[in-house]
Structure to design on (289 residues):
């Protein structure tokens, strides 16, 4: 196959670092070492415990979503990140009556606010039943499916009473409440590889960890996205220029559900470069914007 042609040896099994003086990895009791070791172990979906939400384990995560063999008639998706939004959108578009439960007022809140606001509106106009300021309190199983009990309270409304409501006959409850890096069981702490408070491996711009010869890349590092706020922080307000547009594409001119197309270009420096690093090399003039 392609990897053996490229002289790549594949070793199947769970890898973890050993306590040898030189960085060493062990798989099924056999040790491997190299001058350069790259960690690319990705992440996994976070789950709530039964103590946090009784019945939580009756739900699935994005891994279980890909194992579904039939379309659930009634779905409840919990979370406000891109996986929750994407999966609620897929289920709803395929014809599942879908509710999306979010803790605050909008989805994708750690994305650019332009995307967050428009996506929150877009979801509602596309037929997803959005429950804002809401959290799942408990889940139980009945003959007709799951009963998902939800508590809603708007913190911005003074003295807003908690409302407790139940969604019945749910065929699919999907938790999409975040992901955690696969650093547990790797033994990286004892390797002096620094992690942040969520367990992500800390790297510099060249993917070096705090230990020479060990590098990390991908989701295990959990690097933030470039937003205008970050561009302003790193480049200075005077060096950042933002172009925005939003319109209803011609395709939707005669449809009843008007889907918006929104675009925002974050440019830095005099040349109006677009992208995170100068090596990406695009300028605003390269776009029809
Ligand atoms: C539902 C979903 C939808 C997504 N949609 C998109 C999208 O549309 N576009 C996009 O760009 N990105 C998308 N992503 C993100 C994308 O999948 C990840 O950013 C990408 O897969 C990260 O790659 P990675 O190599 O860092 O980790 P992964 O792809 O997670 O790979 C890590 C691998 O390491 C293995 N592993 C872990 N620990 C060990 C160990 N100790 N020993 C040996 N092996 C180990 C794991 O089993 C896994 O095979 C999506 C993610 C999810 C969950």
């Amino acid at each position: 196959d392609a990897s053996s042609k490229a002289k790549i040896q594949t070793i199947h099994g769970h890898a973890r670092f050993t306590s040898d003086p030189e960085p060493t990895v062990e798989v099924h009791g056999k040790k491997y070492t190299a001058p350069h070791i790259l960690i690319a172990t990705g992440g996994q979906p976070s789950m709530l415990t039964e103590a946090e939400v009784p019945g939580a384990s009756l739900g699935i995560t994005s891994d279980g979503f890909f194992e579904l063999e039939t379309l659930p008639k009634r779905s409840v998706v919990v979370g406000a990140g891109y996986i929750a939004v994407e999966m609620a959108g897929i289920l709803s578009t395929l014809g599942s009556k879908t509710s999306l439960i979010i803790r605050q007022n909008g989805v994708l809140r750690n994305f650019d606010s332009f995307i967050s606001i428009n996506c929150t509106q877009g979801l509602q106009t596309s037929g997803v039943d959005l429950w804002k300021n809401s959290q799942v309190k408990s889940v139980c199983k009945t003959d007709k499916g799951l009963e998902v009990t939800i508590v809603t309270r708007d913190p911005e409304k003074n003295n807003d009473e908690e409302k407790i409501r139940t969604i019945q006959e749910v065929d699919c409850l999907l938790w999409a409440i975040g992901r955690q890096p696969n650093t547990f069981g790797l033994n990286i702490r004892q390797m002096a590889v620094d992690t942040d408070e969520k367990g992500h491996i800390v790297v510099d711009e060249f993917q070096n960890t705090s230990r020479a010869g060990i590098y990390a890349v991908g989701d295990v590092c959990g690097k933030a996205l470039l937003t205008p706020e970050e561009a302003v922080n790193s480049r200075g307000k005077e060096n950042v220029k933002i172009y925005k547009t939003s319109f209803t594409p011609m395709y939707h001119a005669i449809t009843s559900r008007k889907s918006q197309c929104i675009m925002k270009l974050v440019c830095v420096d005099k040349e109006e470069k677009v992208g995170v690093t100068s090596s990406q090399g695009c300028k605003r003039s390269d776009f029809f914007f």
Q: What stands out?
A: The mean pLDDT is 89. The domain at 2-42+181-221 is CATH 3.50.50.60 (FAD/NAD(P)-binding domain). The CA atoms of residues 113 and 227 lie 9 Å apart. The longest helix spans residues 82-94.
